[in-house]
Amino acid sequence: MAKSGLNSTCALIGMAESDVGIVPDKTPRELCVQVTLDAVRDAGLTLQEVDGLITCNAFAEPIMYHAEAVAEYLGWQPRHCVTVNTGGGTTFMAIKMAAAAIAAGMAHTIVVAMADSLRSFMTREQAMVVQSSSGHPHYEQPYGPTVPAYYALIARAHMDRFGTTEEHFAHAAVSCRAWANQHPKAQMRDLISVEDVLGSRPIADPLKVLDCSLVSDGGAAVVITRGDLASSAAQKPIYLLGYGEGHAYEHISQAQDLTTSAAAISGRAAYADSGLTPDDIDLLQLYDCFTPALLIQIEDLGFCAKGEGGDWLASGISQPGGQKPLNTHGGMLSYCHPGNPGAMFGLTEAMLQLRGQAGERQLPSINTALCHAQGGIMSSHATLVLGNERLS
Amino acid sequence: MSRPTPRPSPTELPFYEACARGELTLQHCEPCDRFLFYPRTHCDHCHNPTLNWRRVSGKGTIVSYTVVRRAVSEAFTAPYVIALIDLVEGPRMMSQIVDTKPEALAVGQSVSVAFEAWSDDIKLPVFKLHGVLGK
Known about the structure:
By secondary structure, chain A is an alpha/beta fold. Chain A is built from 13 helices and eleven strands.
């Protein structure tokens, strides 16, 4: 297994989130600017001490040169400045690009910032159409698929192959909501049951509305720096122990395997990079755009055998008090999902937990976390392994 | 509001011309002895640039399906069925299953192609449960 060469070369030393959920008073660009400044402040730095910016474009306010526009807004001329676009995987592929740029000496400290406002700056119709436009324009979109429909195709195939049930998927939503119930900022906090999920409005069989992630506004940013600079940082540094990515296809109708994703490839690479195994991971922060996506990642990232993701979720192991806490902020199912920035909140939550700053929901004993993001329809995957100690 | 409709490139045109005649055709790579879909300039296995259009049976099986209850836009009326279909010649296609009740569907069922007008010029392949065709 080839290693990324990035393990322990970098550390995350700053983070910030905007308000999340329904945030009508700031545009996506303004949210991105705000979290950039807040993350740099959290790191105990000034913008002049940061020499790189990586952003992601916003659906609700597309800008042709996005990162450059954010830097300009701040009156800032960073040495390294680029916009990344790999859908929901943008988040951690941007972290990789930041780490690679630092390892190559192109920058020493980079802010990765992104925000979008699918809830307040787009209509429901616009948000639905823009997201489903990832489908092939000639061989998928003419048939009217929605993003939930793409994931429903994956869900049905998993049910047919492994005997997974709608109840199994529902447990994923119940688990994320149980954590969101403990987070004061979460968009949806009321506890739900398996029956609530099964009885919720049908969207694309077998998926109901509570199997689907939220539509939100919000932004988040992190500051990443060279490992040797991290030890003097204002906050406890969180080290990037391993990174992996995997790319299987772009369009779901071209997938060779509907039930095993390239998360298996990205996970293996990230474990090899870090020298850790699934047993060593204290916190899982996975990409829960839809409940079946979460279930398949649990399997493909090695937390249970293939086909047993449903039983793993139903056991309660991922819920508060369980041995494998999962999406302790509530995930995109319950915390917030502003589109491409969605997985950033999985990362900022992992940083808070590893720093010991997660308040009421702080895990008692945590040294490692695995964060996973994906783009497309389970198409491209990126996995981060983080720890609060450097690898020796 | 009308349904999204392909505007074929020169490479794709033979596929849509065949659809307009009521025929399903796919590109075939001689060196690989393999059909491919969607239309490409090169075989996606060996990258041979000489591909031949061949008419295929239009028969296949359902690999997965979903009943869409919340339409993507006003151009579509829910419920409708989207499926992935493995053609007997090998390639997989996304399409709609038409003229069926959702409860009649299952993974592994046999389907046959039919053609439906998406615009004045463009017809697209859709599928019907096998045996329902000649009703």
